[in-house]
Amino acid sequence: MSRKKFTCAVCSGPASKPTGEHAIPKQFLKVLDKANTDCLGEAYELHAKTTRDGKEVSGTQKPINPLSAVRLVCCPPCNQWLRVNFEDPATKYLPKLVQGRDVLDDPPPSLAPLSRWLIKTVLMCHHPDVRYEGMSGKAKAQFLKVDAVPAFLRYIRESGKIPEKLALWVLFHPLHAPVILQKHPEATIDMGLNIRRPDLGGVLRFVVTDGPALDFRPTGRTEIEALWPL
Predict the structure, then answer these.
(1) Where residue 212 falls among pLDDT bands split at 50, 70, 90?
(2) Which H/E stretch holds residue 120?
(3) DSSP for 121-155?
(4) H or E element: which one contains 90?
(5) What is the value of pTM for the model shown?
(6) What pLDDT is stored for residue 54 in this prediction?
(7) Given a cut of 80, is residue 7 above it in pLDDT?
(8) For 211-223, what is the mean pLDDT?
(9) In b/e form, how buried is each residue of 108-138, taking b as 16+ CB within 10 angstroms?
(10) CA of 179: how far to CAs of 56, 102, 174, 175, 218, in Å?
(11) CA distances (Å), 229 to each of 69, 90, 195, in order?
(12) Phi/psi of residue 197, nearest 5 degrees
């Protein structure tokens, strides 16, 4: 019996098995385990502690982090390349997303490694072939899959650069005062990643879109900043 063939989502080359890159890297999953987080929309919440009958249970294994189920087929060379060029440079910045330091306080150029990682991660989470193992159909339905993503990822792999037409925004709004974002008429895509920040009393929203710097116009009171392009 011949082995089933799989295609790498990054370079479009052959991959030996339907696993590979976690769209959310393991080191970030470890950071997220320390926070109660809404991520990638409102599909589910993460809870750091193992509980039973409303009480924390010590000495028991934590539930599997739901975000570890977000996976994309990736060949070993691309997996390694993504780690070296995106994940490793961003590692020291990841705690800023869930701890008491506000990303909006830092000048965008100083966050370039984090911005590159965020764009890569958002793209992978919205790839048409991304898999959400162990999630309910209702949760999966809340994830937007974007047909333009494969071409963006191939460009990044071939050039090592973020496509010029992509922009990354970060905005913060209070937990109970959600912000409506209106896409500019010339923009064709919008993808995002949301992280609840209990320490700040609100939500950090990262939005990737294609087009000029003012594609997204928030309605309501909020803080917004362009992280990419620099």
Answers:
(1) low
(2) helix 112-125
(3) HHHHHT-TT-EETT--HHHHTTS---TTHHHHHHH
(4) helix 88-90
(5) 0.77
(6) 45
(7) yes
(8) 57
(9) beebbbbbbbbbbbbbbbbbeebbbeebeee
(10) 34, 18, 9, 10, 6
(11) 30, 17, 21
(12) -120, 85
Q: Looking up tokens 């803080």, which residue turns up?
A: 223
pLDDT digits (tens, 9 = 90+) for 55-106: 444 333 333 445 555 778 889 899 899 999 998 898 888 777 765 455 767 7
Give the closest residue to 72 by CA, choosing from 121, 15, 23, 12: 23
Domain boundaries in the chain? 6-228
The one-letter amino acid code at 177 reads: A
Secondary structure letter of residue 2 according to DSSP: P
Q: How many CB atoms are located within 10 Å of the residue 228 CB?
A: 20
CA dihedral 46, 23, 125, 200 (to 10 degrees): 40
Q: How far apart are the first and last CA of the chain?
A: 51
pLDDT value for 52:
41
Q: Which amino acid is at 60?
A: T
Scanning the structure block, which residue is given the tokens 């970060």? 170
Please check whether residue 65 is in contact with residue 49, taking contact to mean a CB–CB distance below 8 angstroms. no
Identify the sign of the CA torsion 101, 84, 207, 187: positive
The H or E element containing residue 56 is strand 55-56
